[in-house]
Amino acid sequence: MSTPALSGGGGLFTGFTKLCKGLAVVLVVAHIVVQLFPPAVTYLALIPARTIPFAWNLLTAGYVEQTIYGVVISTFALLFIGKILEPIWGSKEFVKFIFIVNFLTYVCVFITAIAFYYATRLEIYLYMPISGFHGVLSGFLVGIKQIVPDQELSLFGIAKVKAKWLPSIMILLSVTASFFLADSVAYLPMLIFGTYMSWIYLRYLQRRQETNFRGDPSDEFAFASFFPDFLRPVISPISSIFHRMFCGRSEAFNEDQGYGLGGIPLPGSDSIEASRRRERGARALEERLATERLATVKSADGSHIDASEEV
């Protein structure tokens, strides 16, 4: 089966889902609120020193963009990537993914900020307002890696890369930029933790609608797959820690379901289902893009007919 392209040609600006449009409105409105009422940042963004008792900012911080550049990038990325992922995952799972990845990302950022404060005694780690949708956006790239890993994309019009390398390239560029651009350092923890938390969720926790299985046990989605081949022998033993952490030591074998714990199939027990899932995702994406192309052709034909009648 041919792998579909991730761009929709003439339908590039069509097909945005209602859910993504609604979430985009939330990002824009939140940005307007903090611009018109700057004190609102204190209550909506993550300020580690005030997270207790303002614990709700672990949830709200991810939807507050403090800069115009941030809200523009986040809004467009949500709309374009969302129209790929939501039809494949389903609206309920799409919202669940955003909620969980956003929350876990900011929990990790909070813990990291506290740790840096105790290590350095610099109060900037306690009082800097941290917010943004970047953690979820980096998680979206992990979702693309899972669904269409072998899709080739043009990177800045210079070289073609496969979709499975998008999260790794994003992290590499972000780390590199942090050495030269001081402002980019603030986004780095969100990008790293967003990538990491989304992989954990998709790898071990996401429940599939078609089956009772959780996660994606395929070798192509293992933690080591984020790294070049020469580093994988070093990374693979480390990644085994996650398997023991989420699956436990006591695993029972069932001929019908594979490895399970407490009656629930575990990651690694259904690699065939994981392969079928990627095929269904690629097929659904291909059908969606074909529909958009057909709508674009019909629209162009209609315009041509109208012009002929005027003549």
TrEMBL record:
It comes from Beta vulgaris subsp. vulgaris. SUPFAM superfamilies: Rhomboid-like. Keywords: Membrane, Transmembrane, Transmembrane helix. The chain crosses the membrane at residues 23-47, 67-85, 97-118, 124-144, 165-181, 187-205. It is found in: Membrane. The keyword Membrane applies. Signal peptide: none annotated. One of its GO terms (biological process) is retrograde vesicle-mediated transport, Golgi to endoplasmic reticulum. It holds the Pfam family DUF1751. GO terms for cellular component: Golgi apparatus; membrane. This is Peptidase S54 rhomboid domain-containing protein. It is a multi-pass membrane protein. Its main location: membrane.
